[in-house]
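Troubleshooting log. The previous structure file for this entry was overwritten by mistake, so regenerating from the original sequence record. Sequence copied from the archived sheet and checked twice against the printout by T.R.
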Amino acid sequence: MTKVKTPHDRLGVFKQLADVPNSRRLHQYASAYEGRDTWGSYRATVDLGERMSEEWARFSRRWKDHTEEHGRHHALARPNDVETWSVWMLDSFSVDRAYQHWNVIEGFYDWLKWHTEHPHTYNPFHMAAVEPESSTREIWSRKMEKA
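Regenerated output below.
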């Protein structure tokens, strides 16, 4: 099995948001996700100890606050939302701490893609990481170093 080195390797058919037909973009599903705690559904599938459970709660709260500030549900982010969050994290934390946050929420989006009750056909975290000089790419690079 070969290791994934670039975020481009993780992308499916849609390499950038412009490739995604408007009818399949996540913002089209806003009404279906209104009031829905999608993170809670995901979190219920992951067994964590008390300390990690607290960390994940902190990470998800920060992500939810960020997406809410941008007028989006936490499960319906755009690549730009991921980039602005990555910028904030790198300004606020070390790259390792930013990676911890990023990795948990990226996993949430991977989970959404693999569950048929969700319309997710792309991961905005991977799309955002494709940009070579982005903060998201810096965090992705840290992820690859740790792999």
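The mean pLDDT is 91. Archived copy saved in two places this time.
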